[in-house]
Amino acid sequence: MDLSIPYPGPILDTGYFPDTISTWYWSSSPYAYNADDAWHVDFYYGVSNGSFSNRNDNYAVRLVRGGQ
Question: Which pTM was predicted?
Fold first, then answer.
């Protein structure tokens, strides 16, 4: 995330991540205390403040691949 990008974002380099919208995105990490929940990240304001939601909520997905 690049917090120097002004409102309304998205707060990341769209040259590397084209077609990104300013909204909530799911992470790949489930919430440990409830299997129906997962963590999410906000590309609108740039927060990842320990928020989690029910996996049935309508958030965006960014597919990434690790390694080479």
Answer: 0.63
Which candidate, 52, 60, 48, places its Cα nearest to that of 33? Answer: 52
Question: Count of domains in the chain?
Answer: 1
**Which residue pairs, CB below 8 angstroms and at least 24 apart, start in 40-43?**
41/1, 43/1, 43/9, 43/10, 43/11, 43/12
3-state SS, residue 52: strand
Q: Which domain holds residue 20?
A: 1-68
Separation between Cα atoms, residue 61 and residue 56, nearest integer Å:
13
pLDDT score recorded for residue 49: 59
pLDDT by residue (tens digit) across 3-53?
788 877 788 888 888 888 888 888 777 788 887 888 877 877 766 656 667
